[in-house]
Task: structure prediction
Amino acid sequence: MQQRWNMARWLKALRANDGAEIAEFAVVLPLVVLFLFAILWFGRAYNIYTTITYAAREGAKVAVVGTGPSCATCNPAAPTALDVYTRVSQVLQASHIDPLKVQSYAPNPAPAAGGCGGMTTTSSGGVTLYTNAQLNAATSSPPACGVVVSFQYPFNFLLVNAVPPFNTNAFNLRLKAAAQMQEEN
Result:
């Protein structure tokens, strides 16, 4: 009788699901945390991408409009690549993005001189400025002349503990920004 009672108790214990919730929680929790971190990291990457795109537009605006006073008799000096880099740096710093990490990037297809005269390419701090570039198709008439500003920014996903077989180097993105602006006649 004693053996039978022990056997019944063991069978009842095997059929019980008292710890099932804990086991399910242990399986689901890492997936939920991974999903939340993925949302956070991709959200930050998108934030940086929109910021560097805006910074490239602001740099192109400085290259076209200039930094000095705008009047018919003032004749301000033409903006340089350093002026463009300074404006790009200001925009990046406003969003707490390190402008020292900016790297050179040549847009594809590369800007062409076309019918705009001599195109010049200058660079400062990783920001590349193309002046007198033809912005529309080479066969278009009249040519739309302007400036192109381009650069890239590295974004690294930093994990607290790297998960094998991945490591922190497996999650690097090169966020690219290029903006063009037409010069006014």
Summary: The chain has a mean pLDDT of 81. The longest strand covers residues 145-156. The chain is about 40% helix and 20% strand. Strands lie at 120-124, 127-134, 145-156, 172-182.
